[in-house]
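Bumping my old thread because nobody answered last time. Still need a sequence for this structure:
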């Protein structure tokens, strides 16, 4: 599964010194857990004893991983100084965007046949596949060096989401059992995400594809299998063939930013009638005018605005971030069409912690707004709720948190 499902695990950790644990004793408990719990779970899924033993041979606890809670210890919140609210512009660093686009153009030529085959089979454009591949692993150039069995077993034994990681450990063993890769050759991220597309093991079992026809889905060493797997993932999550991901637009003052969100989608022709235009000056394609699109404003009135299609939210299934999906779409457009930066600049934001945003969210909830949860992350529900609160108080809607809102909303 894409790494977006692991971000929340970084919110909790534990001071091991305070836990006063004897690591040797905990290690013994871990080895017992492998035999008494991990092995029976794997056996039920068809994993042989030989595969289990070979995969976990020599595996010990990795105490350096984040989010660990040893037996008998209590998880404590991280310091809020480590949870600053970041400006959207940071996601689009010049070096990251340029490297992804430059590498993508090279890969588009080198793997034109595989990209074309994947697009024919799934309807997913090659430029979108390349955008994800580049973001996840730098087209396979980013070092993926962790032992997934060590990572998943450690987290399955003692983490804030033990059951989840224990099931992922079983899935990793099933991958070896199926013959896709030898246990010693399987590599993952520190969170257990596998190979060039960064699939969690359970996602590998659901979406990894054999693009070469050799009977294996090798997302570690095969670019063709990597391309086929990313395309298959997006197809299975509902990619609509023939539709774009979205368009940067100019939003007239008469159109409120509180209209943001996929639950307020309307025909793109209706957005056009309201005065929403593409920044390029080109009309919306006819096929798009007849279909629905949603308003997206990741920085409220302080940044670029977009009309996005349902395919944008398929990209968010890969990683639950508006900015991730925008990055992939923008890099893809750079690769194929030579497009550049978004037309509207990303505005500056106030220095805030995520805990400050959470205070605002709770204040909005008390006033009857649906913010999508007080998690300190201002998604579209939080952004438009801020706008609605502003309008209800006779102010122009900006749909983005500011530091001075905290005091007003905490009353």
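Sorry it took so long. Here it is:
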């Amino acid at each position: 599964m894409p790494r977006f499902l692991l971000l929340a695990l970084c919110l909790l950790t534990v001071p091991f010194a305070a836990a006063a644990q004897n690591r040797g004793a905990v290690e013994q408990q871990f080895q017992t857990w492998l035999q008494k719990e991990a092995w029976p779970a794997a056996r039920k899924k068809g994993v042989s004893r030989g595969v289990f033993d070979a995969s976990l041979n020599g595996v010990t606890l990795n105490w350096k991983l984040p989010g660990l809670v040893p037996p008998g210890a209590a998880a404590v919140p991280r310091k809020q100084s480590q949870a600053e609210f970041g400006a959207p512009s940071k996601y689009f660093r010049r070096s990251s965007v340029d490297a992804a686009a430059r590498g993508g153009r090279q890969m588009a030529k080198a793997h034109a046949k595989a990209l074309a085959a994947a697009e024919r089979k799934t309807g997913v454009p090659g430029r979108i596949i390349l955008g994800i591949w580049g973001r996840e692993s730098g087209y396979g150039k980013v070092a993926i060096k962790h032992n997934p069995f060590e990572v998943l077993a450690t987290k399955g034994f003692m983490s804030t989401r033990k059951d989840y990681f224990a099931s992922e450990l079983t899935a990793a063993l099933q991958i070896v059992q199926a013959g896709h890769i030898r246990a010693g050759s399987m590599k993952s991220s520190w969170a257990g995400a596998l190979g060039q597309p960064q699939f969690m093991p359970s996602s590998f079992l659901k979406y990894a594809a054999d693009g070469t026809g050799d009977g294996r889905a090798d997302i570690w060493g095969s670019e063709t299998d990597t391309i086929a797997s990313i395309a298959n993932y997006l197809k299975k999550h509902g990619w609509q063939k023939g539709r774009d991901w979205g368009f940067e637009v100019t939003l007239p003052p008469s159109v409120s930013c509180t209209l943001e969100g996929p639950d307020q989608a309307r025909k793109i022709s209706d957005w056009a009638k309201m005065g929403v235009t593409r920044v390029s000056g080109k009309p919306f394609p006819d096929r798009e005018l007849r279909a629905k699109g949603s308003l997206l404003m990741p920085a409220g009135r302080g940044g670029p605005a977009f009309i996005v299609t349902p395919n944008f939210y398929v990209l968010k299934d890969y990683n639950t971030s508006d900015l991730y999906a925008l990055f992939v779409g923008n890099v893809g457009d750079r690769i194929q069409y030579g497009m550049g930066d978004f037309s509207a600049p990303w505005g500056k934001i106030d220095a805030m912690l995520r805990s400050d945003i959470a205070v605002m969210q709770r204040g909005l909830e008390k006033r009857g707004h649906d913010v999508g949860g007080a998690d300190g992350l201002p998604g579209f529900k939080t952004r438009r709720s801020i706008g609605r609160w502003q309008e209800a108080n006779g102010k122009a809607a900006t749909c983005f948190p500011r530091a001075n809102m905290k005091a007003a909303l905490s009353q």
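The chain has 17 helices and seven strands. Let me know if any region looks off to you.
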